[in-house]
Write a structure and sequence with these properties.
726 residues; Beta-Lactamase; 5 domains; seven-stranded antiparallel beta sheet; five-stranded antiparallel beta sheet; elongated
Length: 726
């Protein structure tokens, strides 16, 4: 029932169709129902009922299709109205028939105001010819046409990319559809890139920064632009370009505290689209400008350190912050490179000035050559030596200026230094100047740097010194010969003294044995006869004591004779003599002495044996009296010695060339001592280690003492075999 009512109350198109159907039925000749058979009537009724249902179903489908079409239409209008791209439909005269919200915003109008307006009135004058050409192309072709134009929206210019295609309206009106894409950001970036390319290195330096400041002010519509480099610890800045209201101000230094520039340092970008004066009330420049907007960026060095900044300031709120930030980021890279280059050039100039000052103040002469040996620089001292001014020599070939130097050591060394890329140092006499020069030449890719010094006086002094040295050398040789002769005499005297000592010892021992001992024995015999004849007991006791004294004296004289000239030493050799010394030391001092003697080390000369015997006895006495030793080892060996290891002989003579020595080593486990503190002259007996060392040195021998407190002592004495006996 509801469906039928819906069908009866359908849209006008359905009622119109029903009326047309009834009209056609009246005009059609049909068989009356009453003339039809009942069966046919029933069949016809059935068909009508089925047909009615079919029509009702078709009507429902049509309603649903109509609803879908309406929804699609609504979506289309939503997409059209709210699309980010600007859509327009224009007639042949360029009037706006339809426009979406983005299109109206692009023109700076309300949509209702934009309709029926001529689109061309919003085109910048310089783009109107191109827009007219675009409209004609669209209307005259079936394909899509594209063109970029500039729109004028109040004080602002907008770049738009137009794409259009023709269309025909329902009433036969010719029109065309246009999409407009805002490409202002891209165009401004392209303009900035073009500016950076055109502002090449020929216009770099201070001019570059001034040009950049003017460009930023004009392209971004800002009133004040400053480009700074950071100084000190980054808390202050020095401007390199200041563009203020269409003119350039003088560069100044200022602190970054309480300024928006202080917030910029260390950041990629810093933007305050409005109210910047209220945010930084202590910034005098902002207050003076009555600034409203601010954008700044840091300039970074190649190693990531902040070295400068760019700041743009306007008296109006910033219309497009994203565009301003993008342009500043783009130019900051080039500006940072230019700032670094400018700083590097200043550093190079300062270094050049310092180098010039140094070269002009040094006492050495200096000049530089290019690869063709042309002079490119000479300092003041070089002018003096050359006897020519800079104006006379600069740019001229060195060998043409000084032809006498061609083929000399000067030319050979300069050419070698440049060809082999190596330094050259030499001294040479230059006859035309009658002067000696010390020259140092250093190659470089540009040529050669040469330092030279007048050493004529030094050479003369050296010649005088050489003559004096030769004279002195002759005198030294004469004196050395005298000293060597006296040293040889001293050595011979020492040998003679040693031999005389041994002879005197043997003579004294013989006197003791042959005379004194015989007299003492005879006296004791007389005392013995007297003692047997005396009857007085008291006198007999006295005579007995006298006999004991005579016996002790005889024993002492015998011991003294043995010590002066031990028979075992002369009859059996040094090894047996050392064994005898060991027994005597043990009996007298209760000191254990071990002896190791190599028979092959036996000195062939009697005098050598006697000296080494006395030295060993003195060392054993030192160990017993002073070292508080409990055990001593004595070793005698024969050693081969390389001449290079022998110490110099007495009087500065060369070391002895003998291949072998006799070596006596005495080692004790006593208290030890520090050899650096002495201990040889006193407290060691009359002979003493000092005396041993002195006599050994005269006789081309050596003595070594190795000792440490608490670690015992080892004394080694060496003498050439047979040397003492010569």
């Amino acid at each position: 029932m509801n469906e039928k009512e819906d069908a009866d109350s359908g849209p006008p198109q359905a009622s119109d169709l029903r009326r047309e159907a009834e009209r056609r039925l009246r005009n059609k000749k049909a068989t009356p129902v009453e003339d039809m058979a009942e069966v046919n009537v029933r069949a016809l009724l059935h068909e009508l009922q089925v047909h009615q249902i079919e029509l009702e179903m078709q009507n429902e489908e049509l309603l649903r299709a109509q609803t879908t079409v309406q929804e699609v239409s609504d979506k289309y209008h939503d997409l059209f109205d709210f699309a980010p791209v600007s859509y327009f439909r224009l007639d042949e005269q360029g009037r706006i028939l339809e426009v979406n919200l983005a299109g109206a915003a692009l023109l700076g109008l309300d949509r209702s105001t934009a309709v029926r307006q001529r689109f061309a009135q919003y085109v910048a004058p310089q783009s109107r010819a191109r827009f007219a050409e675009f409209c004609g192309n669209v209307l005259g072709a079936d394909s899509k046409q594209t063109r970029e134009i500039e729109l004028q929206r109040g004080e602002h210019r907008v770049y738009a990319l137009l794409e259009g295609i023709s269309a025909r309206g329902g009433e036969g009106i010719r029109s065309f559809r246009v999409t407009a894409t805002d490409v202002t950001h891209r165009k401004r970036i392209e303009d900035a890139q073009t500016f950076l390319l055109q502002c090449g290195y020929a216009g770099s330096g201070e001019g570059f920064f001034q040009t950049l400041a003017r460009y930023l002010a004009q392209s971004l519509g800002m009133d004040y632009v400053c480009i700074d480099r950071l100084v000190g610890d980054g808390l202050a800045a020095q401007t390199v370009a200041v563009y203020n209201d269409g003119k350039f101000d003088d560069n100044v230094a200022y602190t970054l505290k309480d300024t928006p520039c202080g917030d910029v340092v260390g950041k990629t970008i810093c933007c305050f689209p409005k109210d910047v004066c209220q945010l930084f009330p202590k910034d005098v420049v902002l207050q003076k400008l009555k600034a409203e907007s601010y954008v700044g960026t840091t300039l970074w060095s190649f190693d990531g350190k902040p070295i400068g900044l760019i700041a743009v300031i306007g008296r109006k709120p910033l219309a497009n912050p994203f565009l301003a930030e993008s342009i500043l980021k783009l130019v900051a890279v080039r500006a940072a490179g230019e700032l670094e280059r400018k700083q590097a050039e200043e550093a190079v100039q300062k270094a050049h000035d310092r180098l010039f000052t140094v070269l002009e103040s040094i006492t050495d002469a200096f000049f530089s050559l290019d690869r063709d040996f042309r002079l490119t620089y000479v300092n003041r001292e070089a002018e003096r030596i050359f006897r020519k001014t800079r104006q006379e020599v600069l740019g001229r070939n060195l060998w043409e200026l000084f032809p006498e130097a061609v083929g000399s050591l000067f030319q050979r060394e300069y050419e070698r230094a440049m060809a082999e890329n190596t330094t050259a140092h030499f001294e040479e006499f230059y006859p035309p100047f009658n002067q000696w020069f010390s020259v140092h030449a250093y190659p470089s890719p540009a040529g050669l740097s040469v330092y030279f010094e007048d050493i004529t006086e030094r050479k003369r002094a050296e010649e005088a010194l050489r003559l004096a040295h030769d004279h002195l050398e002759l005198r030294v040789q004469e004196r050395t010969a005298e000293l060597a002769e006296r040293a040889e005499q001293l050595r011979a005297l020492a040998v003679e003294l040693t031999q005389a000592e041994q002879r005197e010892r043997r003579r004294l021992a013989q006197v003791l044995h042959d005379h004194l001992q015989q007299l003492l024995v005879a006296a004791r015999m007389k005392v013995g006869l007297l003692r047997r004849r005396v009857q007085d007991e008291q006198l007999g006791t006295t005579i007995g004591q006298l006999d004991d004294l005579l016996n002790e004296t005889i024993n002492e004289s015998r011991s003294l004779a043995v010590q002066l000239c031990p028979p075992v030493l002369y009859n059996r050799g040094l090894a047996a003599g050392l064994e005898w010394l060991a027994r005597q030391t043990h009996e007298k001092f209760d000191l254990a002495v071990e002896v190791e003697a190599d028979p092959a080390a036996e000195p062939p000369e009697e005098t050598t044996r006697a000296f080494l015997f006395q030295a060993a006895g003195e060392l054993l006495l030192n160990a017993a009296k002073h070292a508080q030793a409990r055990r001593v080892q004595v070793r005698m060996s024969r050693v081969a010695v390389q001449p290079s290891r022998l110490p110099p002989g007495a009087g500065g003579r060369p070391a002895p060339q003998g291949p072998e020595q006799v070596c006596i080593e005495v080692c004790d486990d006593g208290v030890g001592f520090d050899p650096a503190q002495g201990g040889g002259k006193t407290g060691r007996g009359g002979f003493g280690m000092f005396s041993i060392r002195q006599r050994l040195e005269v006789l081309d021998g050596q003595m070594e003492v190795v000792s440490n407190p608490g670690q015992g002592t080892q004394v080694t004495i060496r003498a050439p075999l047979g040397k003492v006996a010569e």
